[in-house]
Write a structure and sequence with these properties.
Layout: E1 10-14, E2 17-21, E3 42-46, E4 60-63, E5 68-72, E6 75-80, E7 83-88, H1 94-100, H2 102-112, E8 116-118, E9 120-125, E10 128-133, H3 140-149, E11 154-156, E12 160-162, E13 172-173, E14 179-182, H4 184-191, E15 208-211, E16 221-232, E17 236-241, H5 244-253, H6 268-280, E18 282-289, H7 296-311, E19 321-325
Parallel strand pairs: 2-3, 3-7, 10-16, 16-18
Antiparallel strand pairs: 1-2, 4-5, 5-6, 6-7, 8-12, 9-10, 9-11, 13-16, 14-15, 17-18, 17-19
């Protein structure tokens, strides 16, 4: 890998990746010491500014022979196994373009390294790391934000990266980017903020960025619970047990990087990772009323009871379902 000297780079660590950047990334805290060239996973570079955007309003992902290209009205990003090059559109900066596509960039770098990346947000509860998984709009960030507002640490918002292992350390999840992306309801209900002075993650987004710099674990933590988020028409919050096949299919459907890539990218190894994870981790369905932000308080109480009881080996939670009224 063609890498400038450490004196020319800023160093960062996110999702377990060691990154070097030729310019400072404003929303990330640089490492006090830049890793050596041999230990860097990838280097982030400035590309030339574009004369005009290469794509319309939507983000386009192209899988090329040796890289993955992200294109939109905000610019173009090329991600290869050891290099990220940013080509911002007019009136956009390299730093802004990186922030907009930071999770995509990390997801593709982790994909190259055979990590299983999941569309999920993760928090610490009762000494355990738990993740909320689900498609866009299912409330992953909103749910995590309520736990954060109650004093729990955020591991990662929007994506987690893990590699199932058979070692004694179990499955580890490393801290992700130090921010959450929240809508107005989550900001108000979970954090008592209106978001007026917070940046948008994307210029056209209604969401705002909440910094958690300095409020994440400094190293990876073991993952013990995954909750598959869903809605139902009842007025309670409910946790239901799932069969391994159902859990595995849900993991496949909510893989992060591979959902943007060609179908052939999801090969046997990806399936085996989901199967291994579904065997190793407690996975259940977490159902709550639709369009009811107030249900997050009951979600919090029920999940904390579930995690604590399972950690304590309470047989009560071997039942197929249990619930709380909202």
């Amino acid at each position: 890998m063609d890498v400038p000297s450490s004196r020319q780079l800023f160093g960062y660590r996110v999702h377990g990746l060691q990154l070097g950047a030729s310019f400072q990334l404003s929303k990330l805290k640089p490492l006090s010491r830049v890793p050596s060239a041999n230990s860097l996973d990838a280097v982030i570079r400035r590309g030339e500014s574009l004369q005009a955007p290469e794509a319309g309003d939507k983000t386009t992902i192209d899988t090329l022979e040796s890289s993955i290209r992200i294109r939109s009205q905000f610019g173009t990003v090329e991600v290869s196994p050891h290099r990220v090059v940013l080509f911002p559109a007019p009136r956009r900066s390299h730093d802004e373009l990186f922030t907009i596509y930071s999770v995509y960039i990390a997801g593709f770098l982790l994909y190259y390294r055979d990590y299983l990346t999941l569309h999920a947000s993760a928090v610490e509860v009762d000494g355990s790391t738990i993740a909320f998984i689900g498609h866009k709009g299912m409330g992953k960030s909103s749910t995590a934000s309520y736990f954060y507002g109650q004093g729990h640490r955020i591991l990662s918002d929007d994506m987690i990266a893990c590699r199932p292992t058979t070692g004694t350390s179990g499955l580890q999840v490393a801290p992700g980017f130090p921010w959450m992306k929240l809508n107005a309801d989550a900001l108000r209900f979970s954090l008592n903020q209106n978001g007026a002075n917070l940046d948008r993650p994307v210029p056209t987004s209604d969401k705002r960025m909440v910094s958690v710099n300095g409020q994440q674990p400094e190293s990876a933590r073991p993952l013990t619970h995954i909750y598959m988020l869903g809605y139902h028409e009842k007025d309670d919050v409910r946790i239901e047990s799932t069969k391994q096949k159902q859990a595995c299919l849900h993991l496949l459907a909510n893989s992060y990087a591979r959902r943007f890539l060609r179908p052939e990218s999801s090969g046997p190894r990806h399936l085996s990772q989901c199967v291994a994870l579904s065997k190793e981790i407690y996975i259940s369905a977490l159902l709550r009323p639709r369009e009811d932000i107030g249900a997050l308080a009951s979600v919090y109480d029920l999940v904390c009871r579930d995690v604590h009881s399972r950690n304590a080996g309470d047989s009560q939670f071997g039942k197929s379902a249990f619930s709380l009224k909202t």
